[in-house]
Amino acid sequence: MTLRTIITPDNPVLRKKAHAVKDVADAALQRLIDDMIETMRAAPGVGLAAPQVAVSQRLAVIEYAPGSEDLPEDAEPPALKLFVLINPEITQRSEALVDGAEGCLSIPGYAGNVLRHQAVTVRALNRKGRPVKIKATGWLARIFQHEIDHLDGVLFIDRASKVWKAKDSEVLAE
Ligand code: NI
Questions:
Q1: Cα(26) to centroid(ligand 1), Å
Q2: Is 174 noted as a catalytic residue in this protein?
């Protein structure tokens, strides 16, 4: 596995609408998935979309412990879950919106308040090419929305009500 370079908005790939993945079994795509997982963990971040490593393909990886934000500090942390989303689509969105601070690995050193749907349903292919349907709430739903935005060239600063300089440890980076 190889760490990929995470690009910033000076690279136009970040602003392009990414292309649908055609061949999930392709060896180069499978290598890219492994590299993205490693790059996300090294950053560290909770999500990474292919355009962030200058590949204009509809693919994102997410690793997060669902529900961990609602637990008391001394609680046993829930297990991390890894999601590989290929050609993901949001098929349902809650009416309820929640405001929250998020960051982006492509915009280091900044955070912003973004309104997101409190819950979403996402349909995608997993890395074996099998269709999956995931219902996500809370922070996991926020991460899904952030990553799928990346596939359309949308960054959190486009949606944020307020953007500020932040320490990297202050917010989850996606
Ligand atoms: Ni991001």
A1: 25
A2: no
The residue segments making up the domain with residue 67 are 12-165
Q: Would strands 131-137 and 110-117 be described as parallel, antiparallel, or unpaired?
A: unpaired
Residues whose CB falls within 8 Å of the CB of residue 159, separated by 6 or more in sequence, listed in order: 112, 114, 115, 149
CB of 59 closer than 8 Å to CB of 127: no
**47: domain CATH number?**
3.90.45.10
What does the buried/exposed string (b/e) look like for 14-24 if buried means 16 or more CB atoms within 10 Å of the residue's CB?
Answer: beeebeebeeb
Has residue 168 got a pLDDT over 80? no
Tokens of 152: 């359309």
pLDDT digits (tens, 9 = 90+) for 141-164: 999 999 999 999 999 999 999 999
| Ligand 1 midpoint to CA 74 (Å) | 29
pLDDT confidence band for 7 (50 / 70 / 90): very high
